[in-house]
């Protein structure tokens, strides 16, 4: 488990750099900063570290090339602009990393690459093979083809998925802020930096507005969600400022900068991790406190403990299990669809057949298909 004290021993490191760090306010690339980060990353590889870079800014680079002042609105336009920008991004990295003697590879992923078991295994194998060859994989979402169901939607989540897929030691997210503050520091000058976040409680999630900077996607919200994926996958995550000189070296030297999310000790088994974080969430059930305790002790989710059902989900889809206070306790695959779950909630197992006319399962979610997050 990595804490501030032993970060220098981290070997496999995923670094995510957001659009707000890679571009100027004008929307044009910030070459000065990109060069500095490429130099730092190259130096880490020379020290024997394995580095995966998750980069944003394809859309920004494409907009700049086309002279667009506003983000494209339609999906085909967005995809076209990202396809143009991705080439420009890779050209830049190829050139700069090449100057430091590094070999890079482009890896474009979609949600399917972490949801489908075979694609998950393929992505993992490719990334690990590249690392083995001493190459720096440069990852972005495959924006040109990923729409709706296939889309991860933001690179914070993507970077946490990548970190989870390759069993990284740490994930470093570089942004235009020093870390997570008690409030949006761009709007509230009195907001204070949180040096460490232990439990990702509903209060912590509430610190982040839904939006980010003008050019970024998702703001602090998606970074905290990424924290959930990372810590539950055994990956310690840090958020720090990409404009700070020598930021990566300072982090690895254990300096108290940015915000650290310390990983949980037990890494989820690969299948459970995929179940919890690869799949799209289709709805939630809210359970009573007795049920919450039973789940924590390893029981399956029974209809009797469910108080409320949110959203419309099909049988077999991934849903969240929330406490009465709104805390996410677990995720799992539902044996009943939303409508059936509404009809049987609060009932004992032996009453299900009477209400639904059939009872294919005793449990609403079987414990083998459930990942506890507490
Ligand atoms: N509690 C918070 N702490 C820090 N930043 C916050 C918070 N709430 C919202 N933000 C916003 O999140 C932004 C960073 O996210 P984003 O714009 O998506 O950047 P990136 O391109 O690096 O992903 C900050 O500029 C800030 O406006
Ligand atoms: N895949 C998109 C970036 C999406 C995204 O999450 O952006 P950011 O919030 O800047 O990390 C792109 O390359 O433009």
From TrEMBL:
Its main location: cytoplasm. Residues 283-365 form the PUA domain. Keywords: Amino-acid biosynthesis, ATP-binding, Cytoplasm, Kinase, Nucleotide-binding, Proline biosynthesis, Transferase. InterPro entries: AceGlu_kinase-like_sf, Asp/Glu/Uridylate_kinase, G5K_ProB, Glu/AcGlu_kinase, Glu_5kinase, Glu_5kinase/COase_Synthase, Glutamate_5-kinase_CS, PUA. Transmembrane segments: none annotated. Pathway: Amino-acid biosynthesis; L-proline biosynthesis; L-glutamate 5-semialdehyde from L-glutamate: step 1/2. It catalyses: L-glutamate + ATP = L-glutamyl 5-phosphate + ADP. Substrate binds at residues 56, 143, 155. One of its GO terms (cellular component) is cytosol. Catalyzes the transfer of a phosphate group to glutamate to form L-glutamate 5-phosphate. This is Glutamate 5-kinase. It comes from Propionispora vibrioides.
